[in-house]
Design a protein that fits this description.
The chain is an alpha/beta fold. Among the domains are: 2-85; 121-191, OB fold (Dihydrolipoamide Acetyltransferase, E2P) (Beta Barrel), CATH 2.40.50.100; 210-353, 3-Layer(aba) Sandwich (Rossmann fold), CATH 3.40.50; 466-545, no CATH class. Helix content is 30%, strand content 17%. The protein has 16 helices and 19 strands. It has helices at residues 2-18, 20-25, 33-64, 69-72, 80-84, 210-220, 259-264, 266-276, 320-327, 341-353, 383-387, 478-482, 489-498, 501-506, 514-523, 530-543, and strands spanning 97-99, 115-116, 123-126, 139-140, 147-148, 153-157, 160-166, 171-178, 184-191, 227-229, 244-247, 284-289, 307-312, 336-339, 359-365, 373-378, 396-400, 407-409, 421-426. Strands 1-13-12-11-14-10 form a six-stranded mixed β-sheet. The protein has a six-stranded mixed β-sheet with strand order 2-16-15-19-17-18. Helix 1 packs antiparallel against helix 3 (33-64). It is globular.
Length: 545
C-alpha cells in the first residue's frame, strides 16, 4: 500500500508540474479550474486506492482465519458480483450458490448410454500403493488359497497397525503380486458368485462417543475411506478435522453419474452424514451440481444434516478441492477430510448393518469402446473383465479413471481404490507436420487457433497424442484461466521445483490435490507434468511436519 501511495503522489506531482506553465499564464483574478480539478481527482484516486487495498487485505486476513468470504461477502463494501451478478436460484438460499466462470469442459465421444450388471467381472484386487504414505511392504495377513469374506482384514500398515484394510468382496485369495524390491503391488481375489459379509457389532451413532466411532471405523476398514487434506492421506488415529467435505458429482470428461448409486443407497448416505457430523466439531459440507434441472429435488437434495452448496460452471467445478476453496478454505495449520459418494455408501452400510459393502457403478467409456456402458460391480474390479468383448480394433490405450487424472493400465490390471471409470482412447502414435500451423484435425483446446470454440457442443474423438514435447517452462497465464481458485499455479510449480517451502505454503499448496491441476496440465504449452510436480511438493511439505 505504501508503494502505491508513493506512486500516486509522484504522479500527482508530475501533473501539478505539467500545469505550472498554465498556472503562470493565468491572471491572479482568474482561478485555475484545471489545476484544482486535477488535485481533486488525484485525492479521490488516492482515497479509492487506500480503500481498495484495505478491503483486499481484510479479505486476505479473513481467509487466513477460515472465514467464508464468498458466502458472507466479507469486506468494506459489497462486491460488484453481489450487486449486479447473476441471482442465485431460489432453491439455493442466500450465499449457497457458486457460479464459477473459470474452467474448460473437454467433450469427448463415447459417453455411457445405459447400465448393465456385473456378472462378467470375477476378479478384484486391493492395492496398498493407492494410499499415500503407506509402507511399501505392509503386513499382509492372508496368503494364496485363503477364503475371505467381504470386510475381512487383508493387510495393515506396520506404522499404523490399528487401521485395517479389508476385502471388497468375498472369495479366494488367488495371488499376492509383488513389485519392485518385493513391495506389495496388489492382492487378487477370485470373487464368489454371491458375496458373504463379515459381521461387525455396530455402535449406536446417537449415543456412542467419538472415540467409540473412531475405534469401530479403524477395526472394520472404514477409516481407510477417509481422505485428509492437505497431503491426501488416510488421517492419523487422533486426527480431528476442522470440517468434512463431500462432492456429489464429477465434472471430469465422461464421468459416471453418481446419482445412479445414490438412488439405491439413499438410506446409507444419510447414515454416513449422521456419523460424519460426530467426527468433526465443524460442519459437514455437501457440494451439489446446479446444472441439473432441479437440484433440490434430486436424490442428494433430500439429505439432511449437512450444509448444502450448489455449484455451476465448467470442469473442474465438480472437484472437491475447488468446492472447499469456495465453501470454507483450508487455513494454514488446519486439516479437513473429504469423501466421495462411493465411500459414503460403504460407510453408511457399515453403520446400518455391520457389513462392509462396496458397490460401484463404473463408466466404461471413450471412442475405443464399441458400446459405452455403465457396469454395476464392486470396488477394485478387473479392467479386462470390464471391457471384455467391448473394444474397437486398433491400438488403444485403456485408462483407469478419466483422461485427465487416470492411469494407463493393461487389461490384466485392476481399478484403483476410488476409481469409478474406465476410458479407452486411440493411441496417438503419429506425428503432425506443422500441426500447430495447420490445425486441420479438430481437437479440444482452449486456444482459439482451432475453430472448436465456435462449436461449444461438439464432441471430439480424442487420442493420447500430446502434440508436442516438454519445452521451456514459460509464464503464459493459461493455468489461471482454467483454475477457479485464487491461486497462482505457475508460480507455485516453480516454487516446488526450487524447493522453496515458504513460497509453496504461501502460494496455496495445502489447498491442492493432483486432480485440481490436471486441467492446467492439459492446457500447458510447456507440457509440464504438473500433477507429478505437485505430488513431489506435497510429499516435501509433509516431510517437514
Amino acid at each position: 500500500m505504501k508503494s502505491l501511495t508513493v506512486r500516486l503522489t509522484a504522479l500527482l506531482g508530475c501533473v501539478l508540474l505539467s500545469t505550472e506553465g498554465f498556472s503562470q499564464a493565468s491572471t491572479a483574478a482568474s482561478p485555475n479550474y484545471l489545476l484544482w480539478s486535477l488535485i481533486v481527482v488525484g485525492i479521490l484516486i488516492l482515497v479509492a486506492a487506500i480503500i481498495s487495498l484495505s478491503d483486499n487485505l481484510l479479505q486476505i486476513e479473513a481467509e487466513k482465519h477460515g472465514v467464508n468470504t464468498e458466502e458472507d461477502d466479507f469486506g468494506l463494501f459489497p462486491s460488484l458480483s453481489s450487486m449486479f451478478g447473476k441471482t442465485a436460484p431460489k432453491y439455493a438460499g442466500k450465499g449457497k450458490y457458486h457460479k464459477l466462470s473459470k474452467g474448460f469442459d473437454i467433450k469427448l465421444v463415447g459417453a455411457s448410454t445405459g447400465v448393465t450388471d456385473h456378472a462378467g467381472v470375477t476378479r478384484f484386487a486391493v492395492k496398498p500403493q493407492n494410499f499415500n504414505g503407506m509402507s511399501p511392504i505392509p503386513k499382509v495377513v492372508v496368503e494364496a488359497g485363503d477364503e475371505v469374506k467381504a470386510g475381512d482384514v487383508i493387510y495393515f500398515d506396520k506404522k499404523v497397525p490399528n487401521v485395517q484394510y479389508v476385502s471388497p468382496v468375498s472369495g479366494e485369495i488367488v495371488e499376492v503380486v509383488r513389485g519392485a524390491k518385493r513391495s506389495i503391488a496388489e492382492i487378487v481375489i477370485l470373487a464368489d458368485k454371491e458375496n458373504t459379509y463379515a459381521q461387525h457389532e455396530t455402535p449406536n451413532v446417537e449415543t456412542a462417543s467419538r472415540e467409540d466411532l473412531v475405534n469401530y471405523m479403524m477395526a472394520s476398514g472404514a477409516w481407510s475411506l477417509l481422505n485428509q487434506r492437505p497431503f491426501d492421506i488416510v488421517p492419523a488415529e487422533d486426527a480431528i478435522p476442522k470440517n468434512i467435505f463431500i462432492s456429489t458429482f464429477s465434472s471430469a470428461p465422461l464421468a459416471v453419474d453418481m446419482s445412479l448409486i445414490a438412488k439405491e443407497n439413499i438410506t446409507a448416505l444419510q447414515k454416513a452424514i449422521d456419523v460424519l457430523t460426530k467426527l468433526t466439531p465443524g460442519k459437514v459440507y455437501l457440494g451439489l451440481d446446479a446444472k441439473v434441472e432441479d437440484p433440490k429435488s434430486s436424490v442428494f437434495g433430500s439429505l439432511t444434516g449437512a450444509e448444502k452448496h450448489w455449484f455451476a460452471g465448467k470442469h473442474p467445478y465438480g472437484n472437491v478441492g475447488v468446492q472447499i476453496h469456495h465453501m470454507a478454505p483450508i487455513a494454514n495449520g488446519t486439516t479437513v477430510w473429504t469423501l466421495g459418494v462411493n465411500e459414503m455408501v460403504t460407510l453408511g452400510h457399515l453403520f446400518l448393518s455391520g457389513e462392509y459393502k462396496t458397490p460401484r457403478y463404473v463408466a466404461v467409456t471413450g471412442a475405443g469402446v464399441t458400446k459405452p456402458v455403465t457396469v454395476k460391480t464392486y470396488q477394485g474390479a478387473n479392467v479386462g473383465d470390464l471391457v471384455a468383448n467391448n473394444l474397437n480394433e486398433g491400438n488403444n490405450r485403456i485408462i483407469a479413471g478419466d483422461v485427465l487424472t487416470g492411469q494407463a493400465v493393461e487389461a490384466s490390471e485392476y481399478l484403483n481404490f476410488k476409481d469409478s471409470q474406465v476410458t479407452v482412447l486411440s493411441e496417438g502414435d503419429y506425428y503432425e507436420l506443422f500441426g500447430w500451423l495447420l490445425p486441420i484435425n479438430p481437437r479440444p483446446s482452449i486456444s482459439r487457433t482451432f475453430p472448436a470454440f465456435l462449436m461449444p457442443n461438439f464432441e471430439f474423438e480424442g487420442d493420447t497424442n500430446t502434440h508436442g514435447e516438454s519445452r521451456a517452462f514459460v509464464v503464459s497465464g493459461q493455468y489461471e484461466s482454467v483454475l477457479p481458485m485464487d491461486i497462482y499455479p505457475q508460480y507455485l510449480m516453480k516454487a516446488i521445483m526450487t524447493g522453496d517451502f515458504e513460497k509453496m505454503e504461501g502460494l496455496g499448496i495445502n489447498e491442492l490435490s493432483e486432480e485440481d491441476v490436471a486441467l492446467c496440465e492439459f492446457v500447458c504449452t510447456s507440457k509440464q507434468p504438473l500433477q507429478s510436480i505437485l505430488r513431489d511438493g506435497l510429499d516435501m511439505m509433509q516431510e517437514q511436519l
